[in-house]
Write a structure and sequence with these properties.
Distance between the termini: 35 Å
Low-confidence stretches: none
Radius of gyration: 24 Å
Largest sheet: 8 strands, mixed
Strand content: 15-25%
Number of domains: 2
Shape: globular
Structural class: alpha/beta
Number of strands: 16
CATH superfamily of the largest domain: Acetylglutamate kinase-like
Bound molecules: adenosine-5'-diphosphate, aspartic acid, magnesium ion
Strand order of the largest sheet: 3-4-2-1-7-9-10-8
Helix content: 40-55%
Number of helices: 15
């Protein structure tokens, strides 16, 4: 039997109409006799509201989380009342919604008393968004005469205890997929699995990082040896740029794993970066499609792209970044400075997005999220205290308000003149490039640019896109 993983993002279940659309897409495939496993996100905005409510409670606010509870109940009950016809099913769902929200209210009340929300508590709090939507979607499918069951991913996705950004443990997860989901598929039922969430061996709730439902879909695709993974979202596929900032963005019909990996890594929210790995290793076809235009082909992600020589396929941007520079005339002769620099950054649990050799060889520059910049500079100053006293290192500082703009395209590899073209285009637009780096997979070039120029730079490079 063909097995298909269908993942629906937040906007794809963001309203009663969207839920109905998602249910129609699933039942259409299930009726064709395919084995379908659905992965579902929380309704759009729900993860944000849950997160925000807990944070305000931790800060001592006693009202905000109560408002959130009312709003979340309203949104979910609206879907149930609009879509679920049968009285008993409706009542059961409404009770389930009330239970989740009551528990959330109590959790926020405790967080308020404690004055702190640990990442462990955050995961317990936010994981309910996906549980609610999975229940609603499974009921909707049953109403459409499709056998279906909501599955809490804590029964399936086993992870380490890195709360808020947990790493799945492949072997145990694979076993659980086999014991929990395979029997459902064998019974012609459609499991509706909560995206984004997992559990540790001790049963503690974890989440896979924001946008992590894509990752759940990829893990299930791998574990079930699926024939395809379809990621349904609110745009027509992977596009040449974020359509919300570049009005002329177009759908990319075919893109390679490496290219889409660079795009996701460098900020294109359309796919969670870690999604790529499990499916690439098994060569499972991956598609990104529009829930609201399912007849369109979307984007097919393939192992190797047919190389279009010398072309830029897409452009993306990451904001809220800072560039840290460690500079000093005496650095050249001192061994291990680079190693110690990045060790210190790692101790701060900060991931480095890009490393660049600045114009002078007597400095190391790297880009990190602005929220980590102060802590990283402080740690580096401690680490290099001796070198600073000796004047081997003159200064360590962070330049804030920068962005990374990345041009992606496998055809850029080894093509002379690509950088010249990018620089030329930016030069004509009078945009200054602070630093440049070539992506590790060689299918991207990243430029550090002042934040005020971000939109202009993206639009300007987008003009160089050729599909
Ligand atoms: P979902 O809730 O379905 O997971 P996301 O909001 O996570 O959806 O991702 C889809 C959004 O990603 C789009 O609405 C779009 O604004 C944004 N996006 C950013 N860059 C791109 C790109 N290159 N192609 C398509 N969408 C992009
Ligand atoms: N609901 C989660 C989030 O908003 C996971 C996801 O949508 O993929 O990050
Ligand atoms: Mg997403």
């Amino acid at each position: 039997m063909t097995t298909l993983i269908m993942k629906f993002g937040g906007t794809s279940v963001g309203s009663p109409a969207a839920f109905r659309q998602a249910a129609d897409i699933v039942s259409g495939q299930a009726r064709k006799g395919k084995g379908v496993v659905v992965v579902v996100s929380a309704m759009s905005g729900v993860t944000d509201s849950l997160t925000h409510a807990v944070l305000t409670a931790a800060a001592g606010d006693g009202d905000r989380y109560l408002d959130t509870c009312i709003e979340l109940r309203r949104r979910h009950v609206e879907v149930v009342e609009e879509l679920i016809r049968e009285q008993q099913l409706r009542a059961a769902l409404t009770t389930a919604i009330d239970d989740e929200i009551d528990e959330f209210r109590e959790l926020c009340a405790s967080v308020r008393v404690l004055g702190e929300a640990t990442s462990r508590v955050m995961d317990v709090a936010v994981a309910r968004g996906e549980r609610l939507s999975a229940r609603v979607l499974a009921s909707l499918l049953r109403q459409e005469q499709i056998r279906s069951e909501a599955v809490d991913a804590r029964e399936v996705i086993f992870t380490d205890a890195t709360f808020q950004n947990a790493n799945p443990i492949a072997e145990v997860t694979r076993e659980r997929i086999g014991s929990r989901l395979t029997p459902l598929l064998a019974a012609d039922a459609v499991p509706v699995v909560t995206g984004f969430i997992g559990a540790t061996a001790d049963g503690e709730t974890t989440t896979l990082g924001r946008g992590g439902s894509d990752y759940t879909a990829a893990i299930l695709g791998d574990g079930l040896d699926a024939d395809a993974v379809w990621i349904f979202t609110d745009v027509d596929g992977v596009m040449t740029a974020d359509p919300s900032t570049v009005p002329g963005a177009r759908v990319i019909p075919v893109i390679s794993y490496a290219e889409v990996g660079e795009l996701a890594y460098f900020g294109a929210k359309v796919l969670h970066p870690r999604t790529i790995r499990p499916v690439i290793e098994r060569e499972i076809p991956l598609w990104v499609k529009n829930t609201f235009a399912p007849h369109l082909p979307g984007t097919r992600i393939v192992r190797q792209s047919e190389n279009t020589h010398g072309t830029v396929k897409a452009v993306t941007v990451i904001k809220d970044l800072s560039m840290v520079t460690v500079a000093g005339r005496g650095m050249i002769g001192v061994p291990g400075i680079a190693g110690r620099t990045f060790d210190a950054v790692a101790r701060e649990k900060t991931s480095v997005l890009m490393i660049s050799q600045a114009s002078s060889e007597q400095s190391i520059c790297f880009v990190i999220p602005t929220q980590r910049a102060d802590a990283v500079v402080r740690t580096l100053e401690e680490e290099m205290a001796r070198e600073i006293v000796r004047r081997d290192i003159d200064r360590i500082w962070a330049m804030n308000d920068i962005v990374i703009v990345t041009a992606v395209g496998a055809g850029m590899r080894g093509t002379p003149g690509i950088s010249a073209r990018l620089f030329g285009a930016l030069g004509r637009a009078e945009i200054n490039v602070i630093a440049i780096a070539q992506g590790s997979s060689e299918c991207s070039t990243s430029l550090v640019i002042d934040a005020v120029d971000a939109t202009a730079a993206v639009r300007c490079i987008h003009k160089e896109v050729i599909l």
